[in-house]
Amino acid sequence: MTHRDWMDMAPEELRARSAVRRLPPVDADPDFRERLLAQFLGQEPPSKTRSLVSQGPRIRPWAWAAAPIAAALVLAVLYFATLHAPEWSLRAAENAGAIIAEGREIPLSDSRAVLAALESGTAVVAPRAAGFELVRGDQLVMAVGPGARVRLTDSRRARIGFEVVEGELNMLTQAGFAGRELIVRTREARVEISGTLVSVARDGSGTCVCVLEGTAMVGPNANAMEPVQPGKRMVLPRQGDPYITDVAPPHAEGLRKFVAGHRDSTAAPDAAPSGN
Amino acid sequence: VLEGVRVRDPGSLTYLFNTCFPSIFSLLYRLCGDRASAEDLSQEVFLKVHRSADQVDPHRDPGPWLTTIAYNTFRDYWRAGKVRAARSLEGDLALRESLAAGGPDPEQDLIRNEDERRVQRALMELSEEHRSVILLRDYGGLDHPTIAQVVGTTHDAVRKRYSRALKELARFLNEDER
Description:
The complex is a heterodimer of chains A (about 280) and B (about 180). Chain A is of the alpha+beta class. Chain A has 6 helices and 16 strands. Chain A has helices at about 5-10, 10-20, 30-40, 60-85, 110-120, 250-265; strands at about 90, 100, 105, 125, 130-135, 140-145, 150-155, 160-175, 180-185, 190-195, 195-205, 205-215, 215-220, 225-230, 230-235, 245. Chain A has a 16-stranded mixed beta sheet that branches. Mean pLDDT of chain A is about 75; it is low at about 45-60, about 80-85 and about 265-275. In chain B, about 75% of the residues lie in helices and about 0% in strands. In chain B, about 40% of the residues are buried. The model of chain B is unreliable at about 85-105 (pLDDT under 50).
């Protein structure tokens, strides 16, 4: 910008320029920043020696003897992992569009790629026009709402973790879920589910956790959890204290339709714990 | 530090990240008007930075190099229609309000946030080229020759584009005020 350019500016242009200059910096979510830094440092350098086996250390003779034992152990671990942790599968309407994962579009018709993106811990964004469902054997159905941004944070045998960055996630546990742990987090909330029908929705104003069946433990963090009973919802605003109120009738109706659809299709009774 | 970045030394990469991430994230957010897209793009940018770390010139300020990567990543995504323009802008500004609520003067904070919302809305009305040149100049603080290098055009073209963009932004802000 030269002096002459500055002199040529109309007053409203000078005001517009000042307005942009006054825009404050935008802070990233600290968790995101930490994750990105870890990812940045954990990247492998491109190309080079990765496939050059001959440059690696020589394999010692005793290692050859141990190899069959190691292979058997790996197979056993894989067998038990497969036996006890059913894989995720994906359900989506035809032509439902594509998710976005790390800026890449992956069509929902390519379920293998979508599941791989999820299982790698990447945040994925559902198409704005249609959601999709993740099904884990006879344990769990998770319906990711249109436009929702979610991340699978933990998928171990007895523990499943999800993060809802934005949008709605409905969960329905099924017969095989008993004894497992499902934890859903948002920026404001932690939700512990042990067998129930729960919906977690998040937008700019905060998080709402609706419970239609069973009981979920909900709170802003692990030290301040409260039970939320069927028919109730906990609202965790960005500003102010969390509170519990009734589930809004239209939302309850939507959740009932969701559960009815899945019970009809799977014929598997809910595994809500006793007392729910 | 930049010699360390070239060989991907973790300490140097951490320093580069901590130094540059805030401004890159802010710029991407202002370009997209959407936090989720800014996060996606930041991931992509730092992946590219890591891939091309060995090309850093240790004798030059890495700022323009990083800004070029960020701008190109944004431009490609925007043109492919992948950026969810301004979708959660209101929500993001609500976050800023909630952060600001703890400040010493909540009334001033609210006025500032309303101004910010108005300016961001007007920026999102601009074309991608106009928005970029204004943000690189007045938010990123780059001079015209550096912007020309970042967006891949001539100094003169940038000067004209900036002038047109500023006129347009002033018009949108005036319309919004009425």
